[in-house]
Specification:
With 57 residues, the chain is mainly α. It is built from two helices and no strands. The mean pLDDT is 91.
């Protein structure tokens, strides 16, 4: 928003298409990154982890 690439109208429209009906936080995205960097993900390969609040459903 600060750069002017997105306005409030764009963000409101985006929320309508998300299953969770809200924007994610930086912490929620970081949790996905931490999981992939952890030993819990050691057997995962060739996958895409969509951290998008259900936007891609």
């Amino acid at each position: 928003m600060e750069s002017g690439d997105f306005d409030q109208r764009f963000l409101d429209a985006s929320r309508q298409f998300m299953a969770l009906k809200r924007l994610g936080t930086a912490e929620e995205v970081a949790e996905g990154v931490v999981f992939l960097a952890s030993s819990c993900a050691r057997w995962i390969s060739g996958q895409t982890l969509m951290v998008d609040g259900g936007y891609a459903l």
